[in-house]
Design a protein that fits this description.
By secondary structure, this protein is α+β, with helices and mostly antiparallel strands. It holds the Pfam family FAD_binding_3.
């Protein structure tokens, strides 16, 4: 074996996954086609709250916060959303270019001991019962126990694994230019809808702007070149001005095709990030979705490689993340439809614009776009879940007072090592040390009487919770004697080590 896990693609998803696997002690090799990061090609321009939270859980958020700029820029089809009331430490959008995000993730991966080979392109793949071989463009093969395709929307791994990618084709043409503007708009986030399409101008860094045009009356051919002239023409056609644009750093084109892999797992091959789903970048969700796929998959794949994964754990990756991806495809389709430049859509926008002003609607859309409201369907009994309202939601970052007299701590700090956490807030009885090699038992007091959970509301603070390494609550008890924590531990963390060895 050349590695326990081979990750194909060193974009945000592949790098985050490699960090998660390495944290769990897995030997990971990332193979990346690009020789070096092309610093001008920064697609995503920001991170949402849940992505900041998952980085915070691992103690790796600080450099991202230091490099980025908080902004109240969340929106649904350019209708502004107010995140200030959300129960998170990060109720904003962090403006940070994708190239910088990748650089910081790569630094962290290398620190953790991830091996990165570049430039290497994967061109072939075959799997058997014991592993997967990937063929490299320069000749030769690499073998891993598992291979994860994090190789973007045109994923070679997905195609080689024979996974279908159904969905809807493009209905519009969007052009993007990172340019200097002699006469920029006054607003830092400028968005307008006109008869021929929409235009957005964002000020990212001093000296240059990102201009995005969307034309609803044509679908560009795949090989049609993008030049400063085509962007200028689109701006003039839509908004009547080109803002004095010049000196492009990067020009690109994209559409609103929305497609999703039928299966996220085929035997020993898995898919994550854009390799598993592509959609219109409305609301800036793609990179976030990929990083969160990686955090869901990482510990499950590590448990499988280490040999303690309970039955079905790896398949729960598809079961949990496919619906989350489908929801993003759905909401981005709705967002692109809501921007169409016809009279009927204008009327619809006015109605929806009014609704967004209603707190409950703002919270629903905000929870969706930030992914703070993601709740995995765990309450199916067979994983010992029970019926507590916290089951499946993300653990909120509540303050805790450890019972051993240690310093006050935030809940996220308990997840630094990427292990499970059984948090006893006074209701746990019995001894549960059979899982000590995978789960930390923490006894603490929580001063908050209720926990605010996006998408659920206020829930009385529980007496105990079992938190998975990805930060989602797998089991919760109201009071002593409530529920069966051993069943939940068995269901998510496998057979206790004592039983295994004894
Ligand atoms: C214009 C635009 C704006 C966007 N804005 C946002 C935003 O604001 N917020 C947001 O969250 N998302 C945004 N996105 C989406 C975001 O860029 C993607 O969702 C994100 O890059 C996905 O990350 P990934 O790692 O899954 O795939 P990618 O970033 O595509 O990375 C895949 C990697 O795999 C490598 N690779 C490909 N094939 C092979 C192979 N055969 N062998 C080896 N390596 C290979 C590639 O070189 C690449 O490095 C935007 C996208 C666009 C187009």
């Amino acid at each position: 074996m050349d590695a326990e896990v081979i990750v194909v693609g060193g974009g945000p998803t592949g790098l985050m996954l490699a960090c998660e696997l390495r944290l769990a002690g897995v030997d990971v090799l990332v193979v990346e086609r690009r020789g070096a990061r092309v610093s001008a090609e920064a697609r995503a321009g920001g991170m949402h709250a849940r992505t900041m939270e998952v980085l915070d859980q691992r103690g790796m958020l600080e450099p991202f916060l230091a490099a980025g700029r908080p902004m109240q820029g969340a929106h649904f089809s350019a209708l502004p959303l107010d995140l200030s009331g959300f129960a998170t430490r990060y109720p904003y959008l962090l403006m940070l270019l994708q190239t910088k995000i990748e650089l910081l993730l790569e630094e962290r991966a290398l620190e953790l001991g991830v091996r990165l080979r570049r430039p290497v392109e994967v061109v072939g793949l075959r799997q058997d019962e014991a592993g997967v071989d990937v063929e490299l463009d320069g000749g030769g093969w690499l073998r891993g126990e598992y291979v994860v395709g994090c190789d973007g929307g045109r994923s070679r791994v997905r195609k080689l694994a024979g996974v279908g990618f159904p969905g809807t084709g493009a209905t519009l043409t969007a052009l993007l230019g990172d340019v200097e503007l002699a006469e920029p708009p006054a607003e830092p986030i400028f968005q307008e809808r006109h008869d021929h399409g929409t235009i957005g101008v964002l000020s990212f860094e001093p000296g240059w702007f990102r201009v995005i045009t969307t034309e609803y009356d044509r679908v560009a051919g795949r090989d049609e070149p993008v030049t400063l002239e085509t962007l200028r023409e689109a701006c003039v056609k839509i908004a009547g001005t080109d803002f004095g644009m010049r000196r492009p750093r990067w020009l690109s084109r994209f559409g609103d095709a929305a497609r999703q892999a039928e299966r996220y797992r085929v035997g020993r091959v898995l898919l994550a990030g854009d390799a598993a789903h592509v959609h219109f970048p409305a609301g800036g969700q793609g990179l976030n979705l990929g990083v969160q796929d990686a955090v869901n998959l990482g510990w499950k794949l590590a448990a499988t490689v280490r040999g303690w994964a309970p039955e079905g754990l790896l398949d729960s990756y598809h079961a949990e993340r496919h619906p989350v991806g489908a929801r993003v495809l759905h909401n981005t389709r709705a967002q692109s439809a809501l921007s169409r430049p016809d009279a009927q859509t204008t009327a619809l926008r006015e109605v929806v614009g009014g609704l967004v002003g209603v707190e409950a609607v703002n919270d629903l859309l905000g929870g969706m776009v930030t992914a703070l409201d993601v709740r995995y369907p765990m309450a199916d009994g067979h994983r010992g879940a029970g019926d507590h309202p916290l089951i499946g939601v993300r653990m909120p970052d509540v303050d805790l007072l450890p019972l051993d007299g240690g310093a006050p701590e935030r809940a996220f700090a308990l997840l630094r090592a990427g292990r499970g956490v059984l948090l006893d807030l006074g209701a746990l009885d019995g001894v549960h040390d059979g899982w000590a090699d995978r789960v930390d038992l923490v006894r603490a007091r929580c001063p908050a009487r209720t926990w605010a959970i996006p998408g659920v509301g206020r829930v009385p603070a529980p007496g105990a919770v079992l938190i998975r390494p990805d930060g989602h609550i797998a089991w919760a008890a109201r009071a002593q004697g409530d529920g069966d924590v051993r069943a939940a531990l068995n269901a998510w963390f496998g057979v206790p080590a004592g039983v295994l060895t004894g």
